Amino acid sequence: MKQFGYFFTFCLVYLFYLPFKFLPYRTCLSYGVFLTRLLFPLAKKHRKIAAENLKFAFPEKHEDEINILVKKHFDHLGHLLAHTLWAPRMTKQWLDKYLILDSESLAIEEETKKQGVGVVLISGHLGTWEILVQFLGIRMKGGGIYKKVRNPFVDRLLHNMRSKNGILLVPVEESSQVVKMLKQGYWVGFGSDQNAGSAGIFVPFLNRQASTFVGPALMAYLTGAKMLYYSVLSGENGQVIVRVKDLGFVDKKLFPSKDDVLRHYTELWTKTLEEEVRLFPEQYFWVHRRWRTQPKTTH
């Protein structure tokens, strides 16, 4: 019975996905925005979450400004939805036409490729991160970490979509495999700005303490891989803007302990993400409860 339920859910998901398999790219973007605008009046809970998060992050903004940002954010979610479902169709020709990479970011990429090292590629839930998955498969020796979905039919669909352009996907449970890949020169993507609960450390992020995974810093620590931060943002007329920041290599000599190393580099990439969010505020994923876990207060 459970398998039938899984299959029925999969059929619904696939029907929803189907238009994005066939519609032209720019039409997919418009369709995605159309869908999120339809949902906007019904999504009271998520509008409230977004508004609350924005008020903490930007206390200087008035209520009207926050409401405008929430509306812009839902339009961005339309682009995110479209990019996520359209991304498996990406080609090198599409990248040549729509990808915008500034000269500084391109220089960082080229220098890193010359170094021939593994890369801990850190990104957050900013912009249109599923494009980065396909981008990695096409342009680099790319790897990614994914969390399995309970529904096996949907899990297979998502896995096939994400691995369409050659990226090597590793389940989140198999961290030893990630260590091997980094030592072999893979560029492995980490989207690590979800609420880490009791598994994380607290670092400042947008005016609050946020429980944050140390995975990216730990992998760089263990393997000697270079850390690069990537923002992949929705631009005008379907363009995708890629911004790269060089976070360097872990320097163990500068710190008294491993915990100090992990804290420093976790704070470094989180601060970099925050700077990017402040530049493109409507494109952060405000509808998730990033700050759900808070430090215990002592009386």
SSE topology sketch:
Layout: H1 2-22, H2 25-39, H3 44-57, H4 63-86, H5 92-98, E1 99-101, H6 103-115, E2 119-123, H7 129-139, E3 142-146, H8 152-162, E4 168-171, H9 175-183, E5 187-191, E6 201-205, E7 208-212, H10 215-223, E8 226-234, E9 240-249, H11 258-279
Parallel strand pairs: 1-9, 2-5, 2-8, 3-4, 3-5
Antiparallel strand pairs: 6-7, 8-9
Helix pairs in contact: 1-8, 2-4, 3-4, 10-11
Description:
The chain is α/β, with parallel strands linked by helices and about 300 residues long. It has helices at about 1-20, 25-40, 45-55, 65-85, 90-100, 105-115, 130-140, 150-160, 175-185, 215-225, 260-280, and strands spanning about 100, 120-125, 140-145, 170, 185-190, 200-205, 210, 225-235, 240-250. The strands form 2 sheets. A 7-stranded mixed sheet has the order 1-9-8-2-5-3-4, with helices on both faces. A hairpin with a 2-residue loop joins strand 6 and strand 7. Helix 1 (about 1-20) packs parallel to helix 8, helix 2 packs across helix 4 (about 65-85) and helix 10 crosses helix 11 (about 260-280).
State Rg.
Answer: 19 Å
Main sheet attributes: strand count, strand direction, barrel closure:
7 strands, mixed
Question: What's the oligomerization state?
Answer: single chain
Low-confidence stretches: none
